[in-house]
Amino acid sequence: MKMTVFLLLAACLQVSAKGYSQKISLSVREASLGQVFKEIQRQSGYSFWYKTKQLDQAAKVTLDLKNASLEETLRQCFKDQPFDYFIVEQNVVIRPRLVIVEDIAPLVQIKGKVTTTDGKPLGGVSVTLKSNKKGTTTDENGDFSISVHRGDILVISYVGYDSREVTIGDQASLEIALTESNTQLNEIAVIGYGRTSHKNLTSAITTLKPEDLNAGAITDVGQLLQGKVAGLNITANGDPNQTAAVILRGASTINSSQSPFYVIDGIPGADISLIAPADIISIDVLKDAAATAIYGNRASNGVIMVTTRKGKPGEGQVSYSGYGGLEKVSRNLKVMTAPQLRAFLKANGEAFSPSDDLGANTNWQKAIEKDNAFSQSHNIAISGGTDHSDYIASLNYANKEGILQASSLQRVIARLAINQSAIKDKVKLGLNVTYSNSNSDDVPYRSVTLLQAAQYLPVSPVKLPSGAYFEDFTTGGYYNPVAMTNNSTLNSKYSNLAGTLTALVKLPFSLTYNMDLSYQSYITNQGQYLDSYFTDNFNDMYNNPNPGLSGHSQQVFGQGGQATRAAYTNTSTLFEDYLTWDKHFGEHHINAVAGYSWQDFTNNDGFTVTTANFPADNISYNNLALSNPYGLSGYQVSFGADGLYNQTRLISDFGRVTYDYNQKYLLQASIRRDGSSVFGANHQWGYFPSVGVAWRLSQERFMLNQNLFTDLKLRASYGVTGNATGFSAYTAQSISGSLGTYYYDGTTTAALGATQEANPALKWEKTATSDIGVDFTLLKGKVGGAIDVYNKTTTGMIYSYAVDPILVPSGSVTANGGSMNNKGIELALTVIPVATKNFKWTSSLNLAHNINKIISLKNPLFSGGDSVLLADPEGAGQSGSTVEILKSGKPLGQFFSLEYAGQNSSGVSQYVSATGKLTTTPTQGVDYHYLSNAQPKLLLGWANNFRYQKFDLNIFVRGSFGGHIFNATRADLFRPATAQYTNILEDAAHETTADYNSYLYSSRFVESGSYLRLDNASLGYTLRNVGEYIKSLRFYVTGNNLFVITGYRGIDPEINQGGLAPGVDYNNFYPKTRTFLLGANISF
Amino acid sequence: MKKTFNYMIMAGLLTSMFCSCHKLSVPITSELTPNVFPQDSAQFIQAEGPAYVALRGSYGVEYFFMQTLSTDEEILPARGGNWFNSGENQQLHYHTWNSGNAYMESMWSWQSTIIGLATQEMALLNEDEPSTNAGKVTSIAELRTVRAFAYLMMMDLFGNVPIDTVAGSFVSQPASPRATVAAFIESEVKAALPYLSTAVNTATYGRATKYTAYALLAKLYLNDNYYTGGTARWNDCIAACDSVINSGLFSLQPMSTYFSQFAYNNGPNNGTLNPEFIFAIPENPTFSSGPWGFRGTNLHQRYDLPRSEKAKFHINFTPSAPESTIPSYYAYFYDSNDVRNNQWLTGLQYMEDGVTPVTVTTTNLGYDQFYTGSAPGASYTYQVNLTPDIILRQDVASFDCGNDEIAWNMGYRCIKFHPDSTSPSTAMNNDIPVFRYSDILLMKAEAILRGGTVTNGQTALILANELRAARTTSTAWINCTLDSIYNERCREFTQESWHRNDMIRYGYYENSWGFKTDANTQHEIYPIPFTALQLNTKLVQNPGY
């Protein structure tokens, strides 16, 4: 086995032989072998490779040669030695002489070549005789030569590849192709500014291939990854226009920025909506700081690297993939039907108002939903290339109808990527242009519509016999949801253009230079119209926002229709270049990267206008000039939020060194110096270092004689990343802004004052992550996986800290303060229980456990920040009844509310007061208790892939366990006392109308959010080389969200886990759906 | 040669990488940074605005609740759980509030914000001192007066409060004793006085003038005895009142136009000012109240107008009307000749013509939720009849009258600020007076009765009768006691947020009314809210909480 070492060393060295003679003259007597070698080396230029110790056993040499050949010289030298030798290029490698016991069959020297299945030579492959375990290894060309007897069995084995046995017959030479073991070790991982194989990683990175991603009618990358990566908590609802909330290893900040940083084809900060799922070739999720720190102050929430398809040299290819799918609502809230509610009221001696009770039995939830929503997607790609160039062009069209009336998404993505080599392949230029255009429709005030649909009385019809919508405005905040949907429109168009020019220059001294120049523009154009019915009837309606710091607010619509138009452009310009030095010194391998990055952003360059009073509703938002806002007493044209436009700049220098010794000991260190204009003048620059080490135990000699571990690697890493997003670009500056309007001398005058205090000390948040991991492959690739334990602490959390308004009248200063910690463990496991020619079963499981804790919420300057009450669902009569708290020592999503203590003797719900007594009149904020929290304790993803001949079946199950949900939706529909005005849940039927407290937000409405979902299942059938023209053809059927096992009583337990107030079911859910689709992938 | 070329390329690339641009600054072109604002007189006016907007912020709604719902003037019970809001309003009525009551928090932060804003805007205006710009000097004096008024309100509600006057400081101050705060307010107003405008016209309407300052001082002096426990300052009060009276710029509205001064168009009309208004907060539904939201408006019609009378008053929304007076307060309106009786909606309701009854069609059960007769769902139409008493029919503990027509008709409603049919929303255009001339007259009368010296020949009786002549056709008083002044104040200042202050000064705050029996004098000062204690760790909770 030592030979392997020598061989590798030898193979790596390149010594020029020019100017040396091949004829050797040598005359020595009783010389040491070492001296002789030196002399031969001097004359021939050939180097000798040996261990000094070996020469201790050498016999003295006596020679007298004139103009002898090297071979002759060596033959004489080694004549009486216990050594043998062989030559690799200009190197003479010394090895112990094989003592071959003569056998019946004569020894033959047989040559062979070991390659991968695609023909690449494999060096360092062990070739041994099965009988005595003796043998050799291949050189860098994959060649080997061995003395064997006919009938011997050779075992050819190499780490990461399936071993093969070859019986020696009468072959003159052997051609052996090794198949890669089914192990992720050999996969390429895309890292920041480079790529490497998984076996060389010191960090926690999960790589996903297209076949690993979720199948279904998915237009959002987050949903493709749902459940697939241990530690990635992704929550999505049925809304076609909303991206999933993605949280990696627990929220690392209470700052609004919690989503991972996306890098698409090496371009940092690219917009993920640019990418059609069909164009993705791999997704790499960079989890620990050793992997992400190279992205410095944007990497705290993890980095997701997306790589798109490239053209391949060879014949041009055309491929099509597409599907059509049908969606249905999987579950609605179980509110009472008309007969149920009528019976309930009767039993309680109550009755509907005659104006409401028109004898209908309307299912209002169904009334605002479609029976079926259709989705389709078509992707055509043309690709090809030569040895010096490649290209790919693709066009994707996706159309996804939402399950709610008037909600849909249409998207077209066109992409062109060309690479061309020049100057003898020393320079490679690439051009990549992607354009994406989305057109989406939605319901304005959708969350209000959903709330109304849940609570509207079923005894009222959608429309009166006259054709007019039924309405009853005597009940406050009560609107016909169908009328709301049908009398309003909301359309958003997004177009996204990204152009990237890349250059790769191969330089001398193993250096490579990369340069990326990229431009992105993101244009949104939104129009909303509330028609005259809407504005005239629903004025002063309250909105129903997502849970967070602020509650609902009253909306003023004017009259005669109100239109809003908003158009904004975001642009970003990026210049990046870096030098890579990749060098092998024998068994040492160094890869070093040093680079520079400059990125400039202009955000929200545009405007919003809201105006009202149109002559006709069909004008909608298309011609604001026809509005007459001045004709409305007291109405004002609105220009949207103040201070949206901003410019920011990011400049960075970065470097990374990776070193490995014989792929056994691995070390990686990186540093990024990041500067950002968003920080205070004194703190614009920060350093983000990381270091990672790994040890591949399986490469050690003591692991040679075991068969359990095919590969085993221990990893440890530590690094610091930052967060420079989630707050306004000018947060550190002193700014005056609009503080309302007031009367001055007969006119309405703007009041302008300090809206923001200067904070020159504002700097980046720091997230320090340590990660210890084990990567393992067992039983020759039948089992593989990784375990990671991490500890992630964010300090100097950027947050709007509460300040006494007598000091800072805005009441808050955005500053660095509190800290947050996440600790967790992740397991990813892939098992291949069965693998035969016709049948293969692969099963992948990932589990993640995370504990999130807010350590502190204080700023050194201000005492405020801790104990922030938030998430106020604003149920009727419950304004200010928040259900969550931000508090040091507690996790994000800590429920803090009343503690339900059953009903008293009069049947009224009672609660535990602050002092521990029971009360029926609890006080907001005071009589609150810490309840459970929204953080799941265990996330699970379990994929099973079965392949039988031409059939493949994928079944993916995922789950979340131990988290809780505050079911405010249920509380608000749990009002037996007002059931004659608004509908209630079926299971509130056993409640009495005497319980005027029944609906109060309390522990009664905290439910387990655990669930197990059969997320998707696909059955496919693949045909290859169908006829002359079709290379491959695959048909498949996919079902999504086939069933959910849960005890949760709301619509769906998958409640948003992102943001400041996770885990509150808040009346504003988009219905979850079940989808069936039929798809085809064809390659020509 | 090739090597040299390679070296050159590499040297070039390395240079480009490591000597690249590292300039981070980006221009700010979309915000008002100190180098562009405030720089001229129009901007000075705008820079003063935030303090005025903030003052409007909670004056009309929550400050009104604090000064009114804690007295016998108004009560805001729950109706079927609606308006219960964690018992905030119930606590105000029973005097059982604690530091968790949301009103405490919103009051403390509101008043702190006015003070903080005024301080900050004064500093912004002062930035390029010394300034000789007259407009700027006046602006600073106005801000100082507004800040003093905020201190007066805050000290009146919470007792000891911190005095903060340094802009840009992040260091909290401990609370100063009430007496120190009172002295600070006096010195601040006096310091501002020389620079305040003496003009009373459209340009100074809604702004702090010299007369605002005198009225503020009069209020301070009248209560000084209670605030500081020190020597009574009745004559200082009288002198401050005289400074207003002697200006000759103010007078009483005659009976015929009494209500016009509270109507939706009570601001300056074609240059004509309301003669009684010394300082008012201009309201307008279209004003944007910034961080104060919709409560930075006059919302009386939302809280006081019965739901059934939307049509009668031609308003553009359905009011919720949970608020009414209490019979013991309504009893002050015994003089049938008094124009101020007309501010109340009582008994059977008729449309504008005075003949057509206001009716509501509901069900037997909708009318009375405790209905047990036959056909509870049968239609039932009745004429709205407002009843004087508040009865907690549904539940006493949760302060609940029930959620039926009977409950919604409980209590006499005040429409002194007449509903605004021109408004598109619940917000009204009716400006809210802070200091009125009638208050000056009654303050002077009270100061005289409490021991001050008569000036200008105006005795308490003469002053009281001067006011009564503009309010009632009944015969003039022949004698006038402190109690008669109190009764007159009840009639005159309903819904003007002075009643708690009056009750405490007269020692009536510990009386019983409605359901309230609490007589703890410590409740004359509200508790400091939790958040304030958290944000300023130097504060100490008030005694009794």
Q: What would your notes on this structure say?
A:
The complex is a heterodimer of chains A (about 1100) and B (about 550). With about 1100 residues, chain A is mainly beta. Chain A contains eleven helices and 57 strands. In chain A, the strands form 13 sheets. Chain A has a 22-stranded antiparallel barrel. In chain A, strands 15-20-21-18-19 form a five-stranded mixed beta sheet. A four-stranded antiparallel beta sheet of chain A has the order 8-7-10-11. Chain B is mainly alpha-helical and about 550 residues long. The mean pLDDT of chain B is about 90. At the A-B interface, strand 29, strand 30, strand 31, strand 35 and strand 36 of A face helix 1, helix 2, helix 5, strand 6 and helix 13 of B.
Brief overview:
Chain A has 1084 residues and is mainly beta. Chain A is built from eleven helices and 57 strands.
Main attributes?
heterodimer, A: mainly beta, 22-stranded antiparallel barrel, 57 strands, 8% helix, B: 545 residues, mainly alpha, two-stranded antiparallel ribbon, two-stranded antiparallel sheet, 6% strand
* Unreliable runs of chain A: 1-19
Fraction of residues of chain B in helices?
A: 25-40%
Distance between the termini of chain A: 48 Å
The whole-number mean of residue pLDDT values of chain B reads 91
Percentage of residues in strands of chain B: 5-15%
Task: Summarize the SSE layout with pairings.
The complex is a heterodimer of chains A (1084) and B (545).
Chain A: H1 2-12, E1 24-31, H2 33-44, E2 47-49, E3 61-68, H3 70-78, E4 83-88, E5 91-96, E6 107-116, E7 126-129, E8 135-137, E9 143-149, E10 153-157, E11 164-167, E12 173-178, E13 188-191, E14 194-197, E15 205-208, H4 221-225, E16 232-235, E17 245-248, E18 261-264, E19 267-268, E20 280-286, H5 289-292, E21 303-308, E22 314-329, H6 338-347, H7 364-367, E23 373-385, E24 389-401, E25 408-422, E26 427-442, H8 446-455, H9 481-486, E27 488-507, E28 511-530, H10 532-538, E29 562-585, E30 588-612, E31 646-661, E32 665-676, E33 685-696, E34 709-723, E35 735-744, E36 747-756, E37 765-778, E38 783-795, E39 798-802, E40 812-816, E41 819-835, E42 839-856, E43 868-870, E44 884-886, E45 894-897, E46 899-903, E47 909-912, E48 918-919, E49 929-933, E50 938-948, E51 951-961, E52 964-967, H11 968-972, E53 1006-1008, E54 1011-1026, E55 1030-1046, E56 1064-1065, E57 1073-1083
Parallel strand pairs in A: 2-5, 6-12, 18-21, 52-56
Antiparallel strand pairs in A: 1-3, 4-5, 6-9, 7-8, 7-10, 10-11, 13-14, 15-20, 16-17, 18-19, 20-21, 22-23, 22-57, 23-24, 24-25, 25-26, 26-27, 27-28, 28-29, 29-30, 30-31, 31-32, 32-33, 33-34, 34-37, 35-36, 37-38, 38-41, 39-40, 41-42, 42-50, 43-44, 44-45, 45-49, 46-47, 47-48, 50-51, 51-54, 52-53, 54-55, ...
Chain B: H1 2-18, H2 41-59, H3 62-68, H4 88-94, H5 102-126, H6 134-158, E1 161-162, E2 175-176, H7 178-192, H8 210-228, H9 234-245, E3 277-281, H10 300-304, H11 310-313, H12 327-330, E4 344-345, E5 347-348, E6 359-363, H13 364-367, E7 379-383, E8 385-386, H14 405-408, E9 413-414, E10 432-436, H15 437-449, H16 460-469, H17 482-492, H18 499-506, H19 530-535
Antiparallel strand pairs in B: 1-2, 3-10, 4-9, 5-8, 6-7
Helix pairs in contact in B: 2-5, 2-6, 5-6, 6-7, 6-8, 7-8, 8-9, 8-15, 9-15, 15-16, 15-17
